[in-house]
Automatic annotation (TrEMBL), chains A, B, C, D:
Residues 1-11 have a biased composition (Basic and acidic residues). This is DUF4916 domain-containing protein. Coiled coil: none annotated. Pfam families: DUF4916 (PF16262). It comes from Agromyces seonyuensis. Gene3D superfamilies: Nucleoside Triphosphate Pyrophosphohydrolase. InterPro entries: DUF4916 (IPR032582), NUDIX_hydrolase-like_dom_sf (IPR015797). SUPFAM superfamilies: Nudix.
Length: 198, 198, 198, 198
């Protein structure tokens, strides 16, 4: 089974022209072809951002978390988080915004945190044992943020659905079992960071 | 000169009935008279919350900070932050929301952070030298948060005005000189926490 | 059953003269008698510090956590964390050091974190439902730190024993069930903050 | 003038065999030649770690910070922080330890933090204006940690000297003017994170 960090083809020509897209350097010759990226993935750690979308109440308490339903490489349905690469010339915030929009749609209205410090740093290795997180394709280092969203989510691209669930539901064995590469632990770590670990 | 932590008479009968006030336990016999509070202030550290109100751009970058203009005990005009006590039976979040509303008005629409962890902890002592912060009246320990506000601020009570300024203006010598009790350093520390220290 | 935040009689004459004790203001008239403290506990939130003692490997990864075994008010054996009040005139760091020494002995050699920001803030209420943490005696707000210790722990006072366990053991149902007032969730939250939630 | 993120030739054969070196995957075919690295630097953000070495007192308060004196590309003497790339297959902690040893020598005995969360994330761009930090060579994203060191520092490689200074000295205009690429602001941000911004 191929466990992978979702990494949508963000270098396709369509993406930067999408409606409401942030001013990332489009048509950038620095961007990588699939082949080049595959080559580099075996040579360098790749920088990612991940987001746990949440709903909050009037005083900021997290009431629900959004988990993506997605088909993985071998056609299995799995649960995952908003995730993607930081591109050359792009700020971490712009990458975070771009991937939130890609996975939640243009009407999600995410409120990115004022602080640049992630709630945790997740290190994915192709070889198990080095950390709690694995990614068969690459060595990825991911800055993980909890992001309140205030609008309506309608997943685009390969995410089938966004499921909103309480923290209690999110840590249930059945949901945790559907999360690949250690993301069940990552989701619980993010809940702990916002004081909502059941 | 009396340097003091702003601590508005939150136990006055008017306050809990104010429009839009959060459901704090009103008419609570546990609340303290001025005399009792003065007595306790010499015996125990008092828990405070402080907030640095900010404006953020579309990806969460802080563009402006809100500083309060207020007359202190001896009639001098000083600059300060949103601040106040946590009361018996009140959560830190509810206290933060209540003081934001008290100092910025009911239309400020603050977005309290999802995380309960403050950007810093400021310890105020009546005696100098123990920490960077002083308060002639008491030993206070303050949980400090950076809070984006999205609405219109119109100060109530003894705050005369909310001044919005860029991070560069906020760290200017003239603004810093108007901040009492070490709050100039506190404001810079909060800016650093959001990656915006000039 | 009385669930309480451990709050050892830190105002007893013996304590400040203990070997290696930090220079806390001893014989301070500001300190409280038991009766006065009981009275104030129903009027104000009381500030606490809590510590999760840990062992770390050569690059800082937490390998073990120290959990205290203690008899509670009704003679039951329970598991808990290092914990205690911050006293008038005492810094948070000094309080943390004092309680670590009180609970782990003078040879524990704790390495207090350079940052004043706690890993989480735990709010204990006498009434359930307001937060994840309860304390029958009082409204307490606790700044929680993870503290590596490098020496030998020999509990003093009413702690019977320090048990070192792996993160996996610490989150096991049997250990979690022995922790009162929500401290099982608190311990897991602290493990998450250091990237070690199993 | 070439402003650059110090990036010592960590792929030289000598380095991994150095005394006391951590078990990084040596002789790794995944490592990059100078030419390959130069090529990739224009295509992907490169992941770095940076460390602000500090001395702390008995309760963890930072008393001094260590700043490196180093000759830059054009022979000017500049001040900088401990810094370097995270390599393929290497954890962030191992990279941090390796660069601390490289810049401070094998007897520095750094105490890496238990938390994987950096005090800030610094984004370096070749083009000014995108962030507070610039690096003429590349787009680098750096996880910044404050690391207490307990031993003796004797710089190796191209660092000429480690200078210990108080927080007050570190923020003085003359020291700040010697720091390239925005690292003066980075050092102040790190001081703020440990509650020691003057």
């Amino acid at each position: 089974m191929s466990v992978r960090t979702p990494d949508h083809p963000e270098w396709t020509p369509e993406e930067p022209q999408g409606p409401g897209s942030r001013p990332v350097p489009n048509a950038n010759p620095a961007w990588l072809s699939d082949l080049e990226l595959a080559e580099i993935r075996g040579r360098l750690p790749i920088l990612y951002v991940e987001a746990v979308p949440v709903r909050v109440d009037g005083v900021g308490v997290v009431t629900d978390v959004g988990v993506l339903l997605r088909a993985n490489q071998v056609g299995e349905i799995t649960r995952t988080l908003v995730s993607g690469r930081v591109m050359y010339g792009e700020t971490v915030r712009d990458a975070l915004f771009r991937h939130l929009e890609k996975d939640l749609g243009p009407m999600a209205f995410p409120l990115l945190p004022a602080s640049p410090v992630p709630v945790t740093v997740a290190e994915y290795f192709p070889m198990p044992g080095l950390s709690a997180y694995t990614d068969a394709r690459q060595h990825a280092v991911s800055l993980v943020f909890v992001v309140p969203v205030t609008g309506t989510c309608e997943p685009r691209q390969d995410a089938l659905e966004v499921t909103w669930m309480t923290p209690e539901e999110a840590v249930s064995p059945s949901v945790q079992a559907d999360m690949e590469g250690g993301r069940g632990a990552l989701l619980r770590t993010a809940l702990a960071a916002v004081g909502r670990l059941p």
